[in-house]
Amino acid sequence: AQRVTQPEKLLSVFKGAPVELKCNYSYSGSPELFWYVQYSRQRLQLLLRHISRESIKGFTADLNKGETSFHLKKPFAQEEDSAMYYCALKNYGNKLVFGAGTILRVKS
Amino acid sequence: KAGVTQTPRYLIKTRGQQVTLSCSPISGHRSVSWYQQTPGQGLQFLFEYFSETQRNKGNFPGRFSGRQFSNSRSEMNVSTLELGDSALYLCASSLVGASDNEQFFGPGTRLTVL
Predict the structure, then answer these.
(1) DSSP state for residue A64 in the 8-state scheme
(2) How far is the alpha carbon of B34 from chain A, nearest alpha carbon, in Å?
């Protein structure tokens, strides 16, 4: 069964500190993975996808098939990064399987 | 371009009633997916519609149903409401049915079942 695990419910860091939000998945085929973000009182929106291998707002994520992981990283956290982050796996069609989410809190 | 819109934004119903939620996708988007978000279960996929056909379905009972119209607008219906159906219902649209297109989410409909 396809599953996405985000082991941390809450990650609290100081401004300027590095951030790593963990995501592990189980999937029998070739996975297509995403990070979605939801800022306070805003809609859920796509942050990045592993296919594009791009950096968005300073965040990067590398797919590690050996460790079945897709951790989200940023070298220097900013206060505006505080939000809920969801890791998601795309299944057949447009079905997304989401992890439970991690709240990132950046303290000043 | 207007984003995905959902109506109503809030609903209060009682057990046993039924409810219909509406989703208008971004203009030109033909795929609409629905998700249920609860504190306990997180975000769970309900179903996806593409070109008026249900293309994919999650693990929800038959009380949950949906449809899509020729203009791509979608509705979902929940019959015989239960307390556990209280949730935020999100819809998402994407440009075409291909798997490589970004999904854009609406603000959600907050359903409370009393």
Answers:
(1) B
(2) 9
- Establish if B25 touches chain A: CB-CB under 8 angstroms: no
Please give the structure tokens belonging to residue B55: 């293309």
The predicted-structure confidence for A13-56, as pLDDT tens digits, reads as follows 999 999 999 999 998 878 889 999 999 999 999 999 888 878 88
**Phi, psi angle pair for A16, to nearest 5°:** 90, -10
Cα–Cα distance measured from residue A101 to residue A86, given in angstroms and rounded to the nearest whole number: 4
With 80 as the cut, is the pLDDT of residue A11 above it? yes
Q: Which of B96, B107, B110 is nearest to B48 (CA)?
A: B96
Q: Give the Cα separation of B6 and B22 in Å (integer).
A: 6
Distance CA B15, CA B69 (A): 28
Kind and range of the H or E run holding A37: strand A32-38
Q: Which helix (H) or strand (E) segment is A88 a member of?
A: strand A83-90
